[in-house]
Amino acid sequence: MIRYYFASRYSNNKLMREYRDILEKTVLNCEVTSRWIDQHGGMLLNSLVLEKLNSYPDECWEYGQKDLDDIDDANVVVSFTGEGGKGGRHVEYGYGLATGKRMIIVGSRENVFHTHPHVEHYYTFEEFLEHEKEA
Predict the structure, then answer these.
(1) pLDDT tens digits, residue range 99-109?
(2) What domains are there in the chain, each with its CATH number?
(3) Does pTM top 0.90 for this prediction?
């Protein structure tokens, strides 16, 4: 089974759910491990704000640990690039790269680590999906 982790801005969770549903219907024997896209079961409706991050770090870290666990459970990290966000997706990308996952960028490359020779690059979700269907 191929297990994908989707990394993106937290505010993209609805779009990532749509992409997950399309991928899981299109590519046989796969699943997306990213619990954050379901807002951690409805427990985290919005991205954590700076006030909460600074006032309740232990409570906030529970979500960070879940994300790392979800990356550990995946074979592939798919990083969706674009403007905005606070940077968590970059940490997720780095963690996946450092732990030897198959790495995929969907969108424009944003930093030097996106140019690693083993990183796959697709400009659109549709391009990525077409590749995965054929693989």
Answers:
(1) 999 999 999 99
(2) 2-134 (3.40.50.450)
(3) yes
